[in-house]
Amino acid sequence: MTRIKICCISSPHEAGVALAAGADALGLVSAMPSGPGVLGEDRIAGILAGLPDGTDTFLLTSKRRAADIVAQHLRCPTSTIQICDELTETDAFSRLRGALSGVTLVQVVHVEGPEAVERALAVAEQVDALLLDSGRPAAPTPQLGGTGRTHDWRWSRRIVEQSPVPVYLAGGLDAGNVRRALDEVGPYGVDVCSGVRRDGALAPDRLESFVAAVRAA
Question: N or C of the chain: less Cβ packing under 10 Å?
Answer without folding.
Answer: N
